[in-house]
Amino acid sequence: MATAKLNNVRIAPRKLRVVAKMIRGQKVDRAIHSLRFLNKAGSRELFKLLVSAVANAEDQGGSDVDDLFVKTVFVDQGPTLGRWRPRAHGRATKIQKKTSHVFVELAAAPE
Fold first, then answer.
1. How do residues 12-51 score in pLDDT, each as one tens digit?
2. Which of 11, 36, 53, 83 is such that its CA lies 20 to 30 A from the CA of 92?
């Protein structure tokens, strides 16, 4: 079992959860292939995180990399950056730039 996490990604968790739901439960090679050609906002970050988790599994040496599958992927909300946009009549409106924390866990396929 290998893990990897990515903190403070500058993408809203709502957008990342769509991509995370797509790869959850898939074999690693299929998940990497689908993320490489997916046209979604967080696919690049999740691709890099999944490759990092596979590298962690190789370093641990406990299981064969070809038998790994994505056991869990969850996306939590990180700190929100507050910005201000000028509006009419001298007012201002707050803009919330949301960030995400992503956690990926790989496990060997059950026999």
1. 999 999 999 999 999 999 999 999 999 998 999 999 999 9
2. 11
Q: Are 61 and 55 in contact (CB under 8 A)?
A: no
Q: Where are the alpha helices (DSSP H) in the chain?
A: 13-23, 28-36, 43-60
In whole angstroms, give the CA distance from residue 26 to residue 35.
11
The conformation of residue 87, written as its DSSP 8-state character, comes to -
pTM for this one?
Answer: 0.88
Buried/exposed 68-106: b ≥16 CB within 10 Å, e otherwise: bbbbebebeebeeeeeeeeeeeeeeeeeeebbbbbbbeb
Under 8 Å between Cβ of 90 and 109 = no
Query: What is the number of residues in the chain?
Result: 111
Tokens of 40: 């979604």
